[in-house]
Amino acid sequence: MAEKTTKKYFSAVGRRKTSVARVRLGENETLSITINDKPMSEYFPVMEWREKVLSPLKVVGKENSSLITVKVLGGGISSQADAVAHGIARALIIMDAELRKVVKKAGLLKRDPRMKERRKFGLKKARKAPQWSKR
Question: Which residue ranges form the domains of the chain, and what is each CATH number?
Fold first, then answer.
């Protein structure tokens, strides 16, 4: 009979605008991040986005020993990077409640609530009105 090994991981959801990231955080000897089955450097080609994703790990000092898999959808690429960072920060807290103070002080637990405003009838966009003419 084959021995079944179960790896322990901690999952959390991160959000920003319309992006949703489902994050699984586990222990590993080296840093390994895959996003939508691609390595992080391939999914986020811009260094700024990669730094945004790694910021929660740097704050708590685990930037060299984490196994992270992410499924992210919706929104733009920058919004997705913020959603992934939010999910990683939440997963770190689930993993170790002692890290909450540090992560919260860094402002990584706050969900960015800014969304696109809906279009109102009679207007061209959310607030732009058609040109007014007197006659």
Answer: 9-105 (3.30.230.10)
